[in-house]
Amino acid sequence: MTISPAAQRILQEVFGYTAFRGKQQAIIEHVATGGDALVLMPTGGGKSLCYQLPALLRPGVAIVISPLIALMQDQVEALTQLGVQAEFLNSSLDANAARAVSSRLLQGELKLLYVAPERLLTNSFLNLLERLQAQHGLALFAIDEAHCVSQWGHDFRPEYRKLTVLHQRFPSVPRIALTATADAPTRAEIVERLALENAQQFIASFDRPNICYRVAIKRNPRQQLQTFLETEHAHDAGIIYCLSRKKVEETAAWLQTRGWDALPYHAGLDATTRHQHQRRFLREEGIIMVATVAFGMGIDKPNVRFVAHLDLPKSMESYYQETGRGGRDGLPATAWMVYGLGDVVSLRQMMDAGDAPEERKLVERQKLDALLGFCESTTCRHQTILRYFGEAHPGDCGQCDNCLNPVETWDATEAARMALSCVYRCGQRFGTGHLIDVLLGKQTAQVEKFQHQRLSTYGIGKALTAQQWSSVYRQLVATGVLQVQMEAFGRLSLTEAARPILRGEQRVFLRHDAQPAKPVTSRPER
Ligand code: ADP
Ligand code: ZN
């Protein structure tokens, strides 16, 4: 059965698009013909269409499970404007409004219903679904933000794990799970937790070729920001992220005094102000939103021309998500960031002060390290980002800062060999903290316990400080020479790429920031 002509027609006539993007067409055909699917696509990739269009192709109503109330509202509003009968059911509706939605459902008037997971899982709702199925049919189940099943993620939602009930009670209804979280462990967890073993997986590239990434050391951040805005984005809409509410307010006020159309946004502002600022950002031209991470989720503005970070985000995932809000229309956009070691200190303090369990904190620290490694890396930014998400990229995009202006580096071949052989000698079972203690010849309880003072790498790294060794390790991780096991106490192990370096067949150049005070001349160790 071919559904392409009908899909094409709806794409143009209902959604007003001329062509499918990426894998949208294949996904839509698969789901519309009754297949289960797992869709991994970066934010802005066009996931919604992957279930909205099949919903219109199949008889009955499509049930969309979403954890975000604000997002449901936006989507329903947008669909209604396109003339599609859609509603949502969540805690923001009072009893009367909810009843009105249920009655529209039962009359078979709706094509899409957005529902929060806890509502879906109630007995009364599941019974309602059975009646619907008998009377009008169920077009499909779409499970949005499917990574919420993962307890390692930041958005863990226990109810998501109970969604297998859909498969058990409605085995004939196709399911499509969607997420922008790309890493393989999360993907495996989604498949297992949602019983999607037989689903076809559609994995889009996470590359955002139209985003130009730039990272600089923080010197005079306001001046740096001002220059960036003036020279590159004088009339553009953009987002500036800051770590704290106070800094958001101060930065927005400062920009205003300089004549910029800047508005603050953070969770401490009252709802009316937040809503008003968001509306202005979406509807007016050239507004700069100065915000904490509270801003952005579900914001769909295609022509954001820049995303600036005045403080480090807490992980590569956050950095990717936040910068990903730029250039959704496919036109060039800049991701600009300044960072300093002060940022790292305050982020670590925040993490340490949090009430997360110890192992969770450890994962958070490693995620921050991975981001730092990215900042410090000397190779193509696109390549480093994609490597983190397990995807290959040829590198040399020709437009990121590292491709355009090769950074000043020092020949770190000897230091890299020391760092790598220390990993190897210690049995590939330790994190950076201990490895650096060994390189510096420290006498710690751990060193005693494992008798590491006997290793040939013990104390050979005294030419570098602990901070410099940290940077060496981070850069070796960022370039894929070492890999870190987040869930195993940050153990470092060698990859294939370490071999030629250890054998002395390949030289290593690292960013100047990590240059040793005196040259490293000790005999290399194999
Ligand atoms: P995601 O949910 O993956 O973050 P969305 O579904 O919100 O992405 O889509 C992102 C943007 O891309 C929206 O502005 C949407 O209207 C637009 N879009 C999606 N599919 C297409 C298409 N085939 N052609 C043009 N624009 C599209
Ligand atoms: Zn590049």
Automatic annotation (TrEMBL):
List keywords of the entry alphabetically: ATP-binding, DNA damage, DNA recombination, DNA repair, DNA-binding, Helicase, Hydrolase, Isomerase, Metal-binding, Nucleotide-binding, Zinc
Q: Name one GO molecular function term.
A: metal ion binding
Known Gene3D superfamilies for this protein? HRDC domain, P-loop containing nucleotide triphosphate hydrolases, Winged helix-like DNA-binding domain superfamily/Winged helix DNA-binding domain
Q: What is its EC number?
A: 5.6.2.4
Pfam family membership, one: RecQ_Zn_bind
InterPro entries to which the protein is assigned, alphabetical: DEAD/DEAH_box_helicase_dom, DNA_helicase_ATP-dep_RecQ, DNA_helicase_ATP-dep_RecQ_bac, Helicase_ATP-bd, Helicase_C-like, HRDC-like_sf, HRDC_dom, HRDC_dom_sf
Q: Which GO terms describe its cellular component?
A: bacterial nucleoid; cytoplasm; replisome
Q: Which cofactor does it need?
A: Mg(2+); Zn(2+)
Q: Where is the Helicase C-terminal domain?
A: 221-369
Q: Which CDD domains match?
A: DEXHc_RecQ, SF2_C_RecQ
Keyword Ion transport listed? The answer is: no
Q: Which GO terms describe its biological process?
A: DNA recombination; DNA repair; DNA replication; SOS response
Q: PROSITE patterns per the record?
A: HELICASE_ATP_BIND_1 (PS51192), HELICASE_CTER (PS51194), HRDC (PS50967)
Q: Which reaction does it catalyse?
A: Couples ATP hydrolysis with the unwinding of duplex DNA by translocating in the 3'-5' direction
Q: Where does the Helicase ATP-binding domain lie?
A: 28-200
Domain of life of the organism in this record? Bacteria
| Entry similarity comment | Belongs to the helicase family. RecQ subfamily.
User: Any idea what this protein is called?
Assistant: DNA helicase RecQ
Which source organism does the UniProt entry give? Nitrosomonas halophila
